[in-house]
Amino acid sequence: MTAETLASDAVATDAAFDPSQHALDMVGYHYRMDDYYEVGREKVREYAKAVRDFHPVHWTEEGAREQGYDALMAPPTFFSLVGIIAQQKLLERIATGYDLSRMLQTDQHAEYYAPVLAGDRLVCDVSLDSFRKVVGRDMMVTKTVITNQRNELAQITYTTLLIGRADDGDNSIADVARGMVMNGMFTFPAASSDPEGVNPSGDDLETVFDPPVLVPNRGHARQRFENVSVGDALPTRTIDLSRGDLINYAGVVGDNNPVHWSDHFASLLDLDTVVAHGMLTMGLGTGFVSAWLGDPGALKECTVRFTSPVMVPPIEHATIVVNGVVKSMDADARTAEVSIDARYNGKRILGHKAKAIVYLA
Q1: Among 23, 60, 174, 335, which has the minimal tally of Cβ within 10 Å of its Cβ?
Q2: First-to-final CA distance of the chain
Q3: Domains in the chain, CATH or no CATH each
């Protein structure tokens, strides 16, 4: 039984279709990409440039080989580029009655199991992990499982979204958004739309795939456990973001939300100017940690909450200052927890619990 069938059944049995109930019913529904995403060498470099990550493993084969990798490694938040495609497809199936222009990402958690290298062919399995109401708004958590061409588990991510209904209040903002972006963005099928052709690949709730293979991986950190102590501070990093950085990032990852590049649209949301992408700021944070660690492949997991927007004016730069400290260590696992303190205008932008867990040599 497909998501579209469930939506049609809901409409048939209840004239007053409830998007929230439909989303709740869809918890556990999976969408698996019907084609792979091939990681390109130049795409790795484009993305690394977009998130200001200049670690050699992302840029040259020599740099990658020095760390023990056969090809350029994608930066830790490269999954946002791959996952946005699958997530859009999932939301088309489960978010009947919602409006994408009113969607806000609030949290991101990523678990790293294997490096993603140029030439890898990635498949995403994305599902609705949970649904609940928070302060009058609907909250969805999507789970994305990324595997490579050998069916090895590469990453698992959890994305928390606040999303508004299509019939909830003034539609003028959504109309403006639809008029600004590429056709097909910010549009979900109505509850009564014809499901025929929406899901040509035919994936459904009963489809079963082989479980991914877990290959042990710790990366090749240059920081040794014996040389790290709780309380150690990481070197401060300062990044200036321009409007051009936002436009470049939007183009690289395919995020066309005009709140990141249109002052007019930002003003409709009562913002003084456009705001930086949350995943761009997370990319700055993971790059900060991996530069200290010595190998992005030694990241075990990372968690952030997007608590304060980064306003980027049309001419002046927005300055972000990132600090970090080793909060705890596990001698048995030879891992460390690093607290990430990223601030714009003195305010935390990744939450007070932002952290990365890393493998140490």
Answers
A1: 60
A2: 48
A3: 3-39+78-180 (3.10.129.10), 225-359 (3.10.129.10)
